[in-house]
Amino acid sequence: MNIFNPYLNVIKKAVDKDPKYSNRFFSNAPDENYDLSYIQELRSELPGLENLNESVQLIKGHGTPSITNLPRLGHHPDFSHLRSTNNTEKHWIISAFVDVQKSTQLHNRFTLATVALITEGIVKASIFAVNLCGGYVHRIQGDGLMVYFGGKNNEKSQATKDALKAFSMISYFVKNDLKDYFESNGIKDIFTRTGIDLGHDNQVLWMYSGLGESGEITTCSLHTSLAPKMQATALSNGIVVGQHILNQLSSNNKYFKQKPKPIWDHEDGRFYNHYDFDWERYLVDNDFAKQNIDGDLILNIGNSNKSPLTPSFLSPIAKVSKPYLNTDEY
Amino acid sequence: MNTKLRKDLTDFLNTYFDFSINTEKTCSRYLILDGVIEVVDTKGVFWDDYEVRLVIPKLGYPYVVPEVYEISTKIERDYNFHISKNGNCCLDIHHKLILEKRRGVVIIDFYKKYIYPFFANHQYKIKTNSYAGGEYKHDGDGVVQFYEEEFKLTDYELIIKYLECSLGKLKTNRNRKCPICGSPKHKKCCRKTVEKLKCFGKEILKLDLDIFKKKLNGVQI
C-alpha cells in the first residue's frame, strides 16, 4: 500500500462528496446553500501522528522512539536557545521551499470547505514526508512549505539525502497519486515546484527574528534566499538544487542537469550554479520506488503489509506473451 | 551507432531507470544493456524482479530482433520455461519476431510487447502452473500450432501447397485457377494467405515446408 493513500483517500472523498462540483452544470448556488457538515468528519480521517509513527517504525525499525509531538513551526529545536535573545549562531542548514502550483483553480470547482480540506491533505502529506525523512517544517503558507534539513546532530551528506528523498516523495505524491485523480475529474496542471540549497557553517547565521512573541528562529543566508529563487525556475513537478547539494553526493552526475544560467553572481568572478534534479531516477536507483511495464513509478517506501499476489491482476500484462522454444537453436 | 538507435536508446534509458549500457560488453556489432525488470501487476503490486541482459544488434537497426538473457537465474533452466541453458529467453515464435524485424523495432515498444510480458508470464506460471496467454509447443509442433491458430490451417497437404506457392514453386496468376484449392480465381480464395506467408521470408518458409513435409510423412521432429 502506498504510504500516501490515507491522505489521497480523504481528498477523493472530499471531491466526490462536494455538492458544488456535482451540481456544477445545473447550479451556481453559493456555498451557504449546501450542507457541508460531512467535512468535519473527513478532516478527522486525515492521518495524525500515529500514522507517522507506524511508518517510522517500518522504515527505521521497531524500537525506534515514538514521536509524541512535532516541534512547533518557526522554532527549530536545535536552535531554541536563541528564542527571544539577540544571540546569533553560525551553523550549516539545508533550506527548501515547495508549493503546489495551479491549485487556485480548485476554487472554481469546489466549495471553499473542500478546497481547504484538499489543501490540508496536501500539507499534511508533505509534513508527513518531511518528518519521516528527518526534516523540520519551518513555515506553512497555503499549500506550500518552508523546510529545513539538518541540525546539531546530523551529517551534511545524510541530511542532503534525506531532503532529496522527502521532496522526491512529495513530488511523486502530487505528480502521480493526486494528479491522476484530479485529471480524471477534469482538473489539469496541478504540480509541485521545489527549490533546495545548502549553506555551510560560515554562510548561515541563525537568529531570533521578530518582536516579543511575534517572531521566529530563522536563518539569514544567501542559500536560504536562493532556495525560493531556484523553486521559481523549476519545471512542472521539478526539483532544482544548488551546487552545494550536488557536491554532497558522491555519485552525482546522472541525477543532475545544470541550468543554462547561474542562479547567483558573486560579482567577484565566481558564479553559483543550480541544477534540475532527476528525482524519479533517484527514487528508483535507491529502491524507494519500482517501475511498472510503462515505466511509471510505484512508491515503495514504508509499505506496511505485503499485498497478496492476485493472478487476475497480472494476467492482462502476462497474457500478451506466448513463449516458444526451438530446442535445436537453444 | 545510427541515429535511430541512439534516439531509441536514449528514450529507453530515460524511461526505465534500472537499465544501463554495459560498456565492457558493448562492441561494434552489439549494444548490450544490463538491467532489472520489476514485475508489477495492474494494481501496482510488486511480484518479483529479474536481472536481465538485452542484446541489440547495431547493424541494420531498427530491422533487428533484440535477444534477452535472464542472468539472475530465477527462471529454472528447463525447456518448459522457454529458456535455454545460458538464459536466452524465447520470447515468441520466430514468425512473429521476424515480422517485427521487417517492420522495424523500437526498443521501448519491443520491451513492452515482448520482454516485460515474458517475465510477468513466468510469475503467472509459477503462481498458477500455466501461462496466462498459453504457450507454443516446442520445435516443429509449435510451428504446426502457429499455422493452426494464425491461419486456421490443419491440413498438412494444403499447408504445403500454400508454402510452395509462397516460395514460387507453384506458379500462380491472380485471375486464373487457384493451384491450392482449385477455385476459378486465385485472387478470390488463397492469395491473401499466400501474401501473408510471404512476409515471413523465404528462409522461414523453407524451414516450415520441411517441417510439414516431415509431418506428412510421419517423421518425428
3D architecture notes:
The complex is a heterodimer of chains A (330) and B (221). Chain A is an alpha+beta fold. Chain A has one domain (5-318): Alpha-Beta Plaits. Helix content of chain A is 37%, strand content 21%. Chain A has 11 helices and 14 strands. Chain A has helices spanning 5-17, 19-22, 38-45, 49-60, 106-109, 112-132, 156-184, 222-233, 243-247, 279-285, 311-318; strands at residues 88-90, 93-101, 136-141, 144-149, 191-199, 205-211, 214-220, 238-242, 256-258, 264-265, 271-272, 274-277, 289-291, 297-299. Chain A has a 7-stranded mixed beta sheet with strand order 3-4-2-5-8-12-9. In chain A, strands 1-6-7 form a 3-stranded antiparallel beta sheet. In chain A, strands 10-11 form a two-stranded antiparallel sheet. In chain A, helix 1 packs antiparallel against helix 6 and helix 6 packs antiparallel against helix 7 (156-184). Chain A is globular. The model of chain A has no long low-confidence stretch (mean pLDDT 87). Chain B is an alpha+beta fold and 221 residues long. Chain B folds into 2 domains: 3-128, Ubiquitin Conjugating Enzyme, CATH 3.10.110; 139-216, no CATH class. Chain B contains 7 helices and 4 strands; from the N terminus they run H-E-E-E-E-H-H-H-H-H-H. Chain B has a 4-stranded antiparallel beta sheet with strand order 1-2-3-4. The radius of gyration of chain B is 20 Å and the shape is globular. Chain B starts with a helix and ends in a 5-residue tail after the last helix.
